[in-house]
Amino acid sequence: MDNQEKAKKFFLEGINLFTKKEFDKAIIEFKKSLELQPKRGSIILNLSKTYFKVKNYMKAKEHLEKLISFSVSLEEKKEALSLLYEVYINLDDIHGIEKLKKISSSEDYFDDFTKMKVNLYYPKLFDSVDQIKNFRKGYSENIKKILYEESLNTLNLEKNPLVPPNFWLSYDGQDNLEINKKFTKLFKKIYPELNQLDLKDTVRNKKIKIGFISEFFTNHTILKLFEGIIYKLDKSKFEVYIFYSDKTLPGTRYEELKRNSMMYDYENVFLPENFYQKVNLIKEKCLDILFYTDIHMSQNLYYLTLIRLAKIQMTSWGHPETTGNSKIDYFLSSKFLEIKDCQKRYSEKVLLSNYLPMYFYKPKVINQLKEDLMVKKNIYSCPQNLIKMHPSFDLAINKILKKDKKAEIYFIKDSNEELTKKFFNRLKKTVTTNIDRIYFKEKLTVEHFINDCGKSSVLLDPFIFGAGNSFHESMYYGTPTVTMPTKYLKSRIVTGAYNQMEIENPPIAKEVEEYVDLCVEFANNVNLDLKKYYSEQANKNLFENEKVIQDLELKFESIVNN
């Protein structure tokens, strides 16, 4: 048997094992085949696909980048580039995406949909502040170019739904109003049918008909923020609907919400997969208010927001960012979350509640606040998603480790191992000493998360995009969170919560040095009495605050009757 026949035998066995989902064994066979025919496109492609299946993205990248440099068929190159795009996304590889952008502009390897995906991709985590500035500049110019390109082909919304990139923009610490306006225009140009689906007539209902819509009404932050409002609204005045996406993942809270509909008098509406059926089903309800709890978080529901489906459409801090969308009338915020000139950063009219706009149930944890929960170390915990770690925050981490020789700083691993590696590799460059005192924990259950916060000496609120739900849960035990707010809502939630809690001398910093000093001071002087004070104030003014509901009812009535 010559080498060509041997390579074919190994290749076919690899295909067989891949089909059986025995990916590790398939890799062995494909590698044997590749040794005999190192430039065979079909072998490299299938080996790369298998590496992708086992989440070995670096190996997939290595082989695919080799493949596109070889002289292979057009179809193989197209397939390789398409897979390489998925690899770069999982690696959050900014440079890789930039390479694909150049290829997409100079070669005909991508269809219109893939071209658009490549050009609209936005990274999750940057290496430096300068990298953010440079990327945003090029990105904004690219969006403008696409928007005003006369030859732009339209796409089919059902077959080719693009992932809106707006979500990731929020973590940069920039004013995104203008770029979000551009996205709105762009999507309505790409999908012209969106311009023809608006609700034509509205009727005034006896009760205010309000619908809450999300695909995250399950074991998720979004439900924790809004379920109390859904339950507590006065049903003699409000007729309440909950719209679930077909993408809503089942979970205990999801099942609980479904079961509670009779008790709390609201209607569950399950939206089908088909986009146009979704539109018609919502229209049929003749809503006075359609409340999008988390615009930008869901590709599945985002495109609904570009259509008028109710008399009044609004959003809130489920995702704390302006939409740039003229079809969204109000952004529900709070006097505790905004500065005086906030309106100029929103396309929506800002509706300021007198409290944080949520009804947060007191977390259910078995343990009580006891001395044995106090760890005899200086534990600095930053229990936030790693995508919140703006490069400017690294400076504070470096300074804390230098100032407090007993400091141990803890982060939570991302579900994507590559993103955790990317963040840690950045810290290796920005934290000049004591990198060995930085640790990464596995994701925890809610109860273990809260207990972990209770055992911490102090909690760190990352710059730019701070804590929200996690802060409220941490207040069960009252461990102080040090924060440094900017002018944007997304960094002001902890500050707003402290103000609502009426905390005396809260740890709110105005600049980095003060932030570091406060962190070190609280870590070295943590005690049970202080934690009890924070916990008591949360119980008094933050958890299950009935005044929130009364305030929101008045706000909803006001905008409908206006």
Concise synopsis of the structure shown:
The protein has helices at residues 3-19, 23-36, 41-53, 57-67, 74-91, 94-106, 112-120, 129-147, 166-169, 177-190, 221-232, 252-259, 261-264, 275-283, 299-302, 393-403, 417-430, 446-455, 469-474, 493-501, 512-524, 528-541, 546-561, and strands spanning 208-214, 238-244, 266-270, 289-292, 312-316, 330-334, 349-353, 378-382, 407-412, 438-441, 458-460, 481-482. The chain has 562 residues and is α/β, with parallel strands linked by helices.
Name the features.
single chain; 562 residues; alpha/beta; Serine Threonine Protein Phosphatase 5, Tetratricopeptide repeat; Rossmann fold; 3 domains; 7-stranded parallel sheet; 5-stranded parallel sheet; 23 helices; 47% helix; globular
